[in-house]
Amino acid sequence: MELAKKEKFMIEKKEDTSIKAVNTITMVTFYMGDFLFGIPASKVMEINKEIDITPVPLSDEHILGIMNLRGQIVTVMDLTKKLKIDLKITPKLNLIVKDEGEAPVSFVIEEIGEILEIEPSKLEKVPDKLEGLSKEYIKNVYQLPDRLLLILDIEKIIKE
Amino acid sequence: MNFDEDILQDFLVEAKEGITKLEEGFIELEKDKKNVAILKELFRTMHSLKGAAGFFGFKTLESITHFSEDILSKLRDGSIELEEDVVDILLKAIDYIKYIISYIEENKAEPVEDKILDFLVELSNFNEKLKKRIQERPIEKELEVKVEEKKETIEEKKEVKRVEEVKEEKEEVIVSSQVELAETHIKVDIKLLDQLMNLAGELVLARNRVVQLSQKTMDEDLTRSVQILSMITTEMQETIMKTRMQPIGSIFNKFPRIVRDLAKTLGKRVNLRLEGTETELDRSIIEAIKDPLTHLVRNAIDHGIETPKERTELGKPQEGNLILRAYQEGGQVVIEIDDDGRGIDVEKIRKKAVEKGFMSYEEAEKASEKELLNLIFKPGFSTAETVTQLSGRGVGMDVVKANIEKLGGSIEINTILGKGTNVKIKIPLTLAIIPALIVASKDYRYAIPQVNLKELVNVDPDKDLLKVGNTEFYRLRGEIIPVLRLSEVLKENGRSQEQRNLVILNTGERFIGLLVDKIFASEEIVVKPLGRWFKNIPIYSGATIMGDGKLALILDVVGLSQFVGISVEEVEKAYESTSVKIKTSAQETVILLLFDVGEERFAIPIALISRLDKIRENEIKISGGKEIIIYRDEVVPIIRLENYLPLKEAPSKESYNVLFFTEREKTCGILCTNIVGTLEVSPEVEEGIYTHPGILGHRIIDGKTVLFIDIYKIIEMYDPDWFIVKVGKEEKTRRILLAEDSPFFRGMIKNYLTSAGYEVEAVENGRQALNRLSSEKFDLIITDLEMPEVDGFELIKEIKTNPDYKNIPIVVVTSLAGEDVRRKVYDLGANSYEVKLNREKLLEEVERLLS
To answer: What's residue B179's pLDDT?
Structure first.
């Protein structure tokens, strides 16, 4: 009996680790005001400091302009405007995100956070009480020990 | 056999691709025997190979592909199973096809070898065998069990036999499959080329930086190396660009056959001429214009060129002419399809437009020839009375237009009924690299495609621009051009520097002026698309990376023209009305400036006024007995209308408005008490009540009588020597016949011609003109186009076909210039084409033609 129980436990444990090994998602995180946002690392092409943005007059408010990324024209977006966060940021970094089949898109950010491994099973729905930004572009939230990580719905942000 | 080298080369490339596809397909098929999609693909590939072989008359190849195709079709339909023997024979067939292709590549002819013929027999036998197998099948089902055993043995026997066969020929096959197809052409993904081009662009930038650095260090060895690097970079960039270019001949050459076949089917005789086949175009564009061109050529033969019988009756040569012409014109490639067939009946389109509900009756009546011809490009609009099999093939003209526009090109039709049709396609040389003018607004640079550029003018915005309402205009040789300020379009805040650079742009339909802060040089730019966020901003067509690595937006001129203000739409309409073919001048419009002198209201075409300004009474000085003002360092004589027209004297005011009139660098000002505004009206006036020199007539506008003044006459009354362009007193006064239905224009033109020393007979339409011509002698004819009864077009035709008057020069006058009309009147035989209100130019032309 004892042995059987132990064995079962072992199996369970084994399964557990295997899930972890296969299924964690690496997240690139960054701060905007008090919010911590995450984007799957697989979607991030690069982060660079070259902020030479050419404005495109008449474009939407959340579009800062375009920039030259090694011969590609990259559209630069201000996420605070897109997410309606009441915050004025000083662009310091370009977080360059892939856009399937199109030229990449850059989000200007002030400060990059840690690179985190998260477990998809622990992703939660966006809570109603979340305030101070437009929730439609947040796909999920993820509880970190000290704060809440907001996972951005990159496709939606880019496509709309 | 003699083939065009290019076509054969194309065939070989295609065949090699086909072989690769077939080989890959079979490998796939072995994994998944029931995959119908692969079978279908294999069948199609084999089928096109067969077609091509048949076209070139490669009989053996055709036979092999024919039998293989047959087998594949059975597989596809499921009537036979994919058994080992079937795969083997098909693979063997591919080996032979490969062998034949490589032989053709070397020898330009098919091999005649026994082993190939033997294989052909084998293939044919096998095919027969399969047919029997299919016939056996239903019986198999009925007698399933009984036959099963028997069948197996048969199969076994066959198997053995087949193995033997294979063994016999194995060596041969190996020989043939070892033949390496020498690759002279390979297919490369365009994306890869794009990427290469991007990288080359980057390399250029990196090179530039290195060059700068090396100049600082002044190291001789380094400088030399950098020079070499620089040269190689340039050469590499050019070569990469070349990889995308192809002569248009590669598609033009396909047309002789298409035309021949089509003409034969339709019982017509067509002589096709290809011109400019060496014109180079971006490969992707070449591919994309193939179908539209084919469609247009079909149309020309089907609807354009008449049957030999009809042509004989019309006095045309039996053989119709079709010309495919390509040439470069200002960074664009123009392709023309020109036929001398029956042309397009614009009146028929007009009728059809109403019938089919594309236009209301009124719209159709007013519609210009261009507008009507454009209907051909609307989905669901076809003028052919019966849709023939040929032209009714799926793609319509709407698709043709859409495809061409997708390439950034344009298409236009010009036609003369009974004489032929010319379709002109303009497409960019390459989608990737265009010459552009670099301009600046504030701190950023913008690129304007050279194709849209007409000219650059240095202006003084305060002096040279005329402001009406909120819109500014510039007068460029008699034409009114609306002006946009780039900084305002871009909604850039803050005070702009003084903008003196006016870029005149051609949108294809009209001209607009764009005031910019700075103009840099013209550069070749690499066009890069903008992201989807900018699609709804009409003023950009892309972006480009400048030499310093910074970006510049490329301006879309058509998009920009949308920013021309509402009040200018009136100007626009006036523009369009020039190309509008209407019956009388009643629909022709002019933009009038209304102003008051004392209590009287006057009107004058705004195009005649160079600018408007206010002056103070005390600025008016007397000099040499005449009133003058000093205006921008220039002495400008002032004319008071009341001195020349029977008016009450205007009360003295503190300030006046002055209308400036400039001709031949001489300016005078007309004093008025009040500017009322502008109005777009037809130039109709009533004559009779106010018959005073200097007044063309009157009209009631907004309940008030408005007098139309003849400024030329008034200035002449003021100073008879003002317009001295003395023709020199000749022995004999030259006689001019003027046909113009609008009394307004008639009066004005007649006046200035008379004052220039000509004897002018004015008539109201073409019919009257013809009557006069039959009884009197004239040295020159000036005609309007839109007139009742007999219009200008008909008049020109009549004159030019009558041996008695065909040598009299004809000047066509119109209210504003339009390219299609110009072309048409010249085609009809007119000698000159001028704008009515441009007196100076018209007089010059008259003088030229009479000398």
So the answer is: 52
B530 CB neighbours in chain A (<8 A) are: 56, 66, 73, 75
- Which residue in B725, B744, B730, B739 sits closest to B682, CA to CA? B744
Instruction: Output the pLDDT for position B469.
Output: 63
Superfamily of domain B582-718: CheA-289, Domain 4 (2.40.50.180)
| CA atoms in the 13 A half-sphere facing the CB of A129 | 1
Q: How crowded is residue B770: how many other Cβ atoms within 10 Å of its Cβ? A: 20
Q: List, as one string, the DSSP characters of B624-640.
A: TTEEEEEETTEEEEEEE
User: Would an 8 Å CB–CB cutoff place B444 in contact with chain A?
Assistant: yes
Q: Choose, from B41, B62, B69, B834, the residue flagged as catalytic.
A: B69
Domain B190-243: give its CATH code. Answer: 1.10.287
Helix (H) or strand (E) holding B332: strand B332-339
Fill in the amino acid letter for B224.
R
Q: Does domain B433-564 bear CATH number 2.60.40.3600?
A: no
Task: Give the gap in angstroms from C-alpha B202 to the nearest C-alpha of chain A.
Answer: 6
DSSP state of B547: T
CB pairs under 8 A between A and B: 63
Q: Does B525 touch chain A (CB under 8 A)?
A: no
Predicted confidence at residue A30, as pLDDT, reads 93
Q: What is the pLDDT of residue B711?
A: 83
Per-residue tokens: B520: 């840099």
Fold of B247-344+383-428: Heat Shock Protein 90 (3.30.565)
The pLDDT of residue B619 is 84
β-pair type (A148-152, A138-143): antiparallel
Interface confidence, given as ipTM, is 0.82
Catalytic residue among B110, B280, B299, B306: B299
pLDDT at B386: 40
In 10 A of CB B845, how many CB atoms? 20
The DSSP code sequence of B708-749 is EE-HHHHHHHH-TTTT-------SS--EEEEE-S-HHHHHHH
Q: What does the alpha-carbon distance between residue B555 and residue B530 come to, in Å, rounded to a whole number? A: 12
Sheet of strand B410-416, all strands in order from the earlier edge strand to the far edge: B270-275, B320-329, B332-339, B420-428, B410-416
pTM above 0.90, yes or no: no
| Domains of chain A: total | 1
Report pLDDT for A22. Answer: 55
Residues of chain B with pLDDT under 70: 1-4, 136-184, 330-331, 382-395, 408, 429-433, 468-470, 478, 494-497, 508-509, 565-589, 664, 683, 688-690, 723-732, 815-819, 837
Check which CATH number belongs to the domain holding A85 and give it. 2.40.50.180
pLDDT at B508: 67
Q: How many secondary structure helices (H) and strands (E) does chain B include?
A: 26, 34
Tell the CATH superfamily of the B5-178 domain. Answer: HPT domain (1.20.120.160)
> Domain span at residue A51?
2-159
The DSSP symbol for B387 reads: -
- Residue window 142-201, chain B: list those with CB within 8 Å of chain A: 198-199, 201
pLDDT given for residue A149 in this prediction: 93
Written out in words, the top-level CATH class of the domain with range B735-850 is alpha beta
Instruction: Measure A117 CA to nearest chain B CA, in Å.
Output: 31
Buried b (16+ CB within 10 A) or exposed e, B382-391: beeeeeeebb
Residue type, B770: L
Give the per-residue pLDDT at B171: 43
Tell which residue, B552, B563, B515, has the closest CA to residue B530: B552
**Is the predicted pLDDT of residue A15 greater than 90, yes or no?**
no
Give domain limits for chain B. Answer: 5-178, 190-243, 247-344+383-428, 433-564, 582-718, 735-850
Residue B744 to residue B698: CA distance in whole angstroms: 9
The verdict on whether B299 is a catalytic residue reads: yes
- B697 in Cβ contact with B690 (< 8 Å): yes
A11: pLDDT confidence band, cut at 50, 70 and 90?
very low
